[in-house]
Specification:
With 274 residues, the chain is of the alpha+beta class. The chain has eleven helices and eight strands. Helix 5 packs across helix 7. The longest helix has 20 residues.
Length: 274
């Protein structure tokens, strides 16, 4: 599918397509919540968050919604495959990934694969094309799992500690710590004040930082992770709704159902059937 934009996929959880970026040279790219961009041909000069990169066949970028990405020049045959994810799909992909990967990608969004990573990426794209072209059932689940495989491979290939060197500003460091705390405590705690207390700051200050660096309120980030945990538990058919409510510290199954429907528009049984 030809892709005219890397922006928000709208009602779709994700969109895959090709682009030559004919009209984008010299203009900041409008980006979806997460974009993986793989160069298929030609070359281009880019700036991402004011850092210059030369992208050639086989290279790829991982861009976030708040990335500042600009193509300054390109060859006539430059083309890329783009994988665009909205917030919901990106959150599901991120659910099994270490928080240190996000810190790393924030600093190092560009990859020039070595032989091993290049072979993996080619096989990964080929398999994803088969999933998109031939699978009718479970396509979305397979897509989410397939993106997770790519990022987990990166975790094994790169030095994640390079993204965590202690030269972040204090506000940035607080935000990344908040992200880690959500993953560790969201099953038991859903209130912003709890996390602000662990970080030794006020809920108001945490809200300011979260909106600045993550473009979301802290409560939104917490609820998103809780919903992912509920979905994960609902994927276990032998586990009752009451067991899930107990494990995630909801007052009862009814409150769990109301919470889930408020955030997803679906009832618990409706989601399980789907």
């Amino acid at each position: 599918m030809q892709m005219n934009s890397l922006g928000d996929p709208g009602t779709e959880d994700y969109v895959i397509g090709e682009s030559q970026f004919s009209g984008e040279v010299g203009h900041p790219l409008a980006l979806a919540y997460v974009v993986v961009l793989v160069c298929q041909d030609g070359s281009a000069e880019l700036e991402v968050n004011f850092q210059p990169y030369r992208m050639m066949k086989g290279d790829f970028l991982v861009l976030a919604e708040d990335s500042i990405a600009l193509i300054t020049s390109k060859s006539d045959d430059f083309s890329c495959t783009g994988y665009r994810l909205n917030r919901s799909a990106a959150a599901e992909v991120a659910a099994v990934l270490p928080s240190s990967l996000f810190v790393f990608l924030n600093r190092f969004p560009f990859f020039r694969p070595d032989q091993g990573l290049s072979a993996f990426l080619q096989a990964w794209e080929s398999q994803l094309a088969m999933i998109q072209g031939q699978c009718s059932s479970y396509k979305r689940v397979m897509f989410i799992n397939h993106l997770q495989n790519l990022f987990l491979w990166l975790c094994a290939e790169v030095d994640l500690e390079a993204g965590t060197k202690n030269d972040y500003s204090r506000p940035e460091a607080i935000c990344w710590k908040f992200w880690e705390l959500i993953s560790a405590h969201c099953k038991q705690h859903r209130e912003v004040a709890f996390y602000a207390g662990l970080l030794h700051i006020t809920p108001f200050y945490l809200s300011q930082l979260s909106k600045k660096y993550f473009n979301d309120a802290p409560k939104t980030l917490i609820d998103r992770q809780v919903v992912l945990e509920i979905k994960k538990q609902l994927g276990q058919p032998r586990k009752s709704v009451q067991q899930i409510a107990d494990e995630l510290h909801f007052a009862d199954a009814s409150y769990l159902g109301k919470y889930f429907k408020r955030h997803t528009g679906l009832g618990l049984s409706e989601y399980r059937k789907s």
